[in-house]
Amino acid sequence: MSSLRKKRPAGTAAAAYGLPLVSRLPRSFATVLIIVAMILTATALVYPVAKSAGAYRSAPVSDDQGVAQTPTGPLTAVDRDFVKRVRLAGLWEIPAGRMALAKSTSPEVKVAGQHLVQGHTDLDKAVLTAARTLDLNVPSEPSAQQQGWLKQLDAAEGGEFEELFANILRSAHGQVFAVVAQVRAGTQNSTIRDLANTANNTVLDHMNVLEDTRLVDFDKLTPLPTGSGAPSASRPPAPAGPTR
Asked: Does one domain contain both 38 and 76?
């Protein structure tokens, strides 16, 4: 019976499964095609991986605009200056508050002094934590101008001291309050936002208790620079003289 079985024509099985018929090729040419196909397959697999690695590559540390990339968002020059200014505020306002507690006989001035000491002690902890998070260096002593204000306060007594204290500190807080608002509105860094929120509450409280002394001469407070919504970082407040 096997001897009577007819030979199946070449390609019949392939046609039965709907596969295209392939003509017989020379063995050497088929080998070349296989090698080319392997190269193309490897390229197709490697290219998406390489492209993906480039897409997730970490951003440069800084760019021409002075923006640094941090774990909590972009950090601008304004953000860095803000951290420095908050630190400087505590370095001179805590001693100023202690002077008010030691030298003044006014209950309202003493309350203001206590708020300054407590508020800036807490704010200073927050700014040091932010500086560590953002890998920033911060000042360790007041600026020359701030040291000059402390000398003025230290040399004054009685009512002169109380008026100097209320007016110098209120002028300084008014300037910083505008800076805090500017930074809070513009920063894209969550660490800076949190610090600005804390600073905003602290500065507003201090402005209120300083005004409660009824010694602030609003006509002598340092105005904001013309045409700007906030003072520049290079322009600190000027002390106001006694009103008497």
From this structure: no
Residues 25 and 105 in one domain: no
- Count how many domains the chain has: 2
Is residue 106 within 8 Å of 86, Cβ to Cβ? no
User: What would the pLDDT profile of 111-126 be if each residue is shown by its tens digit?
Assistant: 999 999 999 999 999 9
Q: How far is CA 167 from each of CA 43, 72, 160, 186, 219, rounded to the nearest angstrom?
A: 73, 37, 11, 29, 10
229: DSSP letter: S
Q: CB within 8 A of 169, min separation 6: which ones?
A: 93, 96, 112, 116, 206, 210
Distances (CA, A) of 98 to 174, 208, 241: 20, 18, 20
Specify the CATH number for the domain of residue 137.
1.20.1260.10
Could you tell me the residue range of the domain that residue 78 belongs to? 68-220
- Type of residue found at 230: A
Question: Could you tell me if 150 and 209 lie in one domain?
Answer: yes
Domain assignment present for residue 115? The answer is: yes
User: Considering the domain boundaries, does residue 241 fall inside one?
Assistant: no
Distance, CA of 5 to CA of 213 (rounded, Å): 118
Q: Which residues contact 210 (CB under 8 A, 6 or more apart)?
A: 112, 166, 169, 170, 173, 216
Identity at 16, one-letter amino acid code: A
Mean pLDDT within 228-243: 40
> Distance between alpha carbon 157 and the CA centroid of its chain, in Å?
41
